[in-house]
Amino acid sequence: MTSWDPADDRWYSDDLGGQTFAGRRVTPDIAMQFSAVYAAVNLLAKTIASLPLRIYRKDGSKSYEAPEHPLNDLLEYQPNGWQTAWDFKAMLMMHLALRGNAYAEIVAGPRGFADRLEPLHPDRVSVERLQDYTLRYTVTDPLRGTRRLMQDEILHLRGSIAPGIVGISPITYARQTVGLALATEEHGARLFSNGARPSGVITVPKSWSDEAFQRFKEDWRRTYNGLSNAGGTPILEDGAKFEAISLTAEDAQFLSTRQHQIEEVCRWLGVPPVLLHHMTKTTSWGSGVEAIMLAFVRNDLRPWLDCWTHAIRRDLILAPRLYEARFDIEDLIRGDSKAQAEFFSRLVLNGVLTRNEVRDALGYNPLPGLDEPLQPNTGATSDKLPGNGGGERNPESNRNGPDGGPALIEASADDAREEPDE
């Protein structure tokens, strides 16, 4: 039985990327070692993976859920035999955020031409345009060798800016930013490995032999370098003197540089810093976070969702005029309990939603008698309104016209009353 080494499933980054001005080589795999990149990509992948993705049937201006559609089970529950829908969406979104492309092979089977969706690593796929303007994908498979798939056999998501037939990785453009962040992080690690203080200069009144110099250097490193030896008092011989260099991490703006690089990564990947727990210069409580979250959904997350749904429409849905794929983002844009109560109360009182529909949205079981929408401005159901057979009729209401207006039939003479004498 053919198998492959687990290392084959890692990020294929050894041959990609290049040296940065900061002296660090940056690839998508290496970039994930910086906490801000990992947190931003992880946030995008997990957020989109947690959103329900369903198929809807369109009927004019209305649309209804279509659980009977064969694609619905693939997209909402399980796209293949070894992944859940959450796993599948998280993997492809991580491919998009780091590589700019995400691929899944469309495998035919009992449910039709799309019986399974098998994800493909972007580094194993190359794309070319044919003379008829269709695309052909060359896949390097560790199990099945190199093979070619046509456009109707691939679900292809292009992320970021895509001026050509493939998307562009944000890490390609952000290489210098990430390289500086990694170099700054390495500088901090080396600073603390040397006792969290800068180097100094040792002067001696006379020259030493090579043997004495090597012995002194090895003894100094063994005794005073490293965190375990921080704070030790050096003992010098032969009149040697130690003069520390007064350059601190704050003088080199080390901490400010690290904070700035976190903000730069957030800008590259389109994630608010507060969502990465970077609270500097950011409102972290109250309405500030709610406004930031709504802006994140509308301005940053929505383009990614459109990227998914448009690719699904093009590559998976055979009747795009009748069916569409849609993410449910209701949980992301809901406000606090007070805002929800006011929102649902207005919808119910204006007859937009029934009380049972609100109970269902809040996770409660339906109750009998709450399926009829209320009439605006009355709070009554349609069968309880006067004149519709509901409620007890007031005899005096015969004297009034519709909506309390003047009577349609004037009163008879017998009903007329004389004015009292003064």
List the helices and strands and how they pair.
Elements: E1 18-19, E2 25-26, H1 28-31, H2 35-50, E3 53-59, E4 62-65, H3 70-76, H4 85-99, E5 101-109, E6 112-120, E7 125-129, E8 135-141, E9 145-150, E10 154-158, H5 170-173, H6 175-193, E11 200-203, H7 210-224, E12 241-244, H8 254-269, H9 287-315, E13 323-327, H10 330-333, H11 337-349, H12 355-361
Antiparallel strand pairs: 1-2, 3-4, 3-13, 5-6, 5-10, 7-8, 8-9, 11-12
Helix pairs in contact: 2-4, 2-8, 6-8
Describe the structure.
There is one protein chain. With 422 residues, the protein is of the alpha+beta class. It is built from twelve helices and 13 strands. The chain has helices at 28-31, 35-50, 70-76, 85-99, 170-173, 175-193, 210-224, 254-269, 287-315, 330-333, 337-349, 355-361; strands at residues 18-19, 25-26, 53-59, 62-65, 101-109, 112-120, 125-129, 135-141, 145-150, 154-158, 200-203, 241-244, 323-327. Strands 4-3-13 form a three-stranded antiparallel β-sheet. A three-stranded antiparallel β-sheet has the order 6-5-10. Strand 5 and strand 6 form a beta hairpin. Helix 2 crosses helix 4 (85-99), helix 2 (35-50) runs parallel beside helix 8 (254-269) and helix 6 packs antiparallel against helix 8. The longest helix is centred in the last third of the chain and has 29 residues, at 287-315.
